[in-house]
Amino acid sequence: MVLLSAVTAPLAIAWSPWVAPVLMVSLVLTWVGYRDIRQRRHSVLRNYPIIGHMRYIFESVRAELRQYLIEGDREELPFSREERGLVYQRAKGEEDKRPFGTMEQVYAPGFNWLTHSIAAKVITDFDFRVSIGGPDCRQPYLASIYNISGMSFGSLSGPAIAALNRGARKGGFAHDTGEGGISSHHREGGGDIIYQVASGYFGCRNEDGSFSAERFAQQATDPQVKMIEVKLSQGAKPGHGGMLPAAKITKEISEARGIPMGVDCISPPSHSAFSTPAGLLEFIARLRELSGGKPVGFKLCIGHRREFMCIVKAMIETGITPDFIVVDGKEGGTGAAPLEFANRVGMPMLDGLHFVHNTLRGAGLRDRIRIGAAGKVVSAYHISRAMALGADWCNSARGYMFAIGCIQAQACHTNKCPVGIATQDPRRAAALDVGDKSDRVARFHRNTLHALGELVGAAGLSHPSEFSPYHFMFRARDKEFQDGNEVFPELPDRFLLEGSDHPELQPWLDRWGRADARTFAPLSMPRSRFAA
Known about the structure:
By secondary structure, the protein is α/β, with parallel strands linked by helices.
């Protein structure tokens, strides 16, 4: 536009009548572009001055009209426009109320809702927290019940990590590092850190990729680190490793991960520091000691249910228990995953929560271990439903990504994120204003917990921890629904240890009988229903 203005100005001075309108338009657009580059609220406009306004024009068109115009050709996004819009409104501090009632298909199978109380309460303190740390923990952490889930520096840009961490500090909640290690952007933010230790041992590895106790201790004893999370698997691609190509490894990523430049960075699908259930727990005990007694737990997406029972049996036999377990649902997100893994591998979050909660109850260990939940938890309703099924707190990745401006361009794996979040391109990343976006992160957290408090009061409760399956209803099919405690029943305490004749508990007891604390391999396979 500047060049066009420069070319047309002399012609306009010469009184060429057809040039004057072009000059006026080019001058106006030059001013718009200059303003777009200078403003700090919209990363899209900073990266794409002038043409970026088309995005906001298209977004203003109602979703129903867009779907009508393109019929069924539009690929479904991980979140609907309405859910993403809710996050944007709460992050920006805008009005999040909506006229004309629900937009959900209330009679569709799978629809669920919260049952409210006539004796509703008014909740005034929305700073809901949970103490995490079992009997062997010497530095328990008083955590918010809504924190930032694991997203690595390397997958996300430096400004995105800085905005998330600074927002966590402002809001008083925690930021999970993801498997990419602790970077300078985490440290500059000053927010509470959950240090994730994954199969690549980034930030705490030897040159051959094995675990380094010395380097781990240097990281974990930092006062900014509040908890340590051993990642066994993640929801979007459980059982699958990963690779960061050498071309994407910058000097900062090399320093944060402790990896060489010019070499592909491999994340194996499983850990090398242990290979058995008991070995996992011994590793957890070792990390707890090396960190100075901080809470240590593990994160997983449930796959073979017997394998989780192997870990629980090992807890009983070794006497070692993690301080927490984070249940990641298969609906969790990632920057890139094979389609088969993203769609068809792993257990959804609600089912995984129900299984983990009841297995720990059945083994008499539930009161020693806290449970976190992750997997598309972007609203107060999602938090309340997860806590009803056994979660003590929730983590969210995409919710906080929306808060810093993610528009679901689905270009995370291309290094061309239009808003500077999922990219290592310094020019694109520079468009993300850390100060403004960190305010949005803190505001989104605060407003979401405020909405959660309103749901708690509507149910006649005093704290989200009081939610139970009983408070929710689930539609099975048209005009038929079930109580939440029928769909997700809470099973008896210690039933795995004491046994039961109840027919609904027999599959659990059979699986428990095939679990072994010494190995993840099955003692025997379940009999076929066609066997003689």
